[in-house]
């Protein structure tokens, strides 16, 4: 079984690690776009072209499924990618986990990129899935780039700025950018530092586990976390064979993937 994941950079690591934990025997292909990153500032048409090229590069290696592990690419490019690859390859998009977050009750904050925050796309998700919950949209300028470059000081600055915009009594935080799941502990520390005495612990809702489980369902596979760890790892850098970026190894998810046998 081979599952591919795509993103402009290392935002695909959380979902890839989630697949690896569910199926240690699955071969993984990571297809990203160092030549074209970041995708966020691009026009929708330009972004769609870049994302489609990354998806087609992955498709040449014949995976059974492709996870679009990027919220921005899912918003703009998912229809084009599905039109190009399905039904031969199952394509799974990534959307913020607003519905399960709202189901827990209490105030909800959605941390997302400035381009996504306040967008018609995110407002539509809130309207359709928040079930009347009180939702605060929190823009996080610079956070994805700081995570991408594994710059802890820049991460802390961006996280602190976003935490200051988050209500103190928020119960649930939706991580609306796949990069943010790599620094969940730093986000929690920043929110706790604002003083939450007497309040229940914050619950985070990312997308990695959900999209990993959905990818297995789409290919008819069951989770088998005890399977032999025989899965290989391949990396495409703007279509060229390569290796995991050094910055990826700064995160636990990257180190988990880096321990896999290389593909031959």
Automatic annotation (TrEMBL):
Transmembrane segments: none annotated. Keywords: Isomerase. The keyword Zinc does not apply. Its EC number is 5.1.1.3. GO terms for molecular function: glutamate racemase activity. It comes from the Bacteria. GO terms for biological process: peptidoglycan biosynthetic process. The keyword Isomerase applies. InterPro entries: Asp/Glu/hydantoin_racemase, Asp/Glu_race, Asp/Glu_racemase_AS_1. PANTHER family: GLUTAMATE RACEMASE (PTHR21198). This is Glutamate racemase. It comes from Streptomyces venezuelae (strain ATCC 10712 / CBS 650.69 / DSM 40230 / JCM 4526 / NBRC 13096 / PD 04745).
């Amino acid at each position: 079984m081979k599952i591919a994941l795509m993103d402009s950079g290392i935002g695909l690591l959380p979902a890839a690690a989630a697949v690896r934990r569910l199926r240690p025997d699955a071969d993984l292909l990571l297809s990203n776009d160092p030549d074209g990153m970041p995708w966020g500032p691009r026009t929708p048409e330009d972004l769609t072209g870049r994302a489609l090229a990354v998806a087609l590069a992955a498709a040449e290696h014949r995976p059974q499924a492709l996870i679009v592990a990027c919220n921005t690419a899912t918003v703009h490019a998912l229809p084009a990618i599905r039109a190009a690859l399905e039904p031969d390859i199952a394509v799974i998009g990534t959307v913020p986990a607003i519905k399960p977050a709202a189901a827990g009750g209490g105030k909800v904050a959605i941390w997302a990129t400035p381009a996504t925050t306040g967008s018609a796309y995110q407002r539509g998700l809130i309207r359709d899935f928040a079930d009347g919950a009180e939702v605060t949209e929190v823009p996080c300028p610079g956070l994805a780039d700081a995570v991408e470059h594994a710059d802890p000081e820049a991460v802390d600055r961006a996280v602190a700025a976003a935490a200051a915009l988050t209500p103190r009594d928020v119960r649930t935080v939706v991580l609306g950018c796949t990069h943010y799941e790599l620094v969940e502990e730093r986000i929690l520390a920043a929110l706790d530092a604002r003083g939450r005495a007497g309040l229940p612990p914050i619950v985070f809702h990312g997308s990695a586990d959900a999209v990993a489980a959905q990818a297995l369902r789409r290919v008819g596979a069951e989770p088998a976390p005890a399977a032999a760890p025989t899965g290989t790892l391949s990396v495409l850098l703007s279509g060229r064979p390569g290796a995991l970026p050094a910055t990826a190894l700064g995160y636990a998810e990257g180190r988990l993937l880096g321990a896999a046998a290389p593909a031959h």
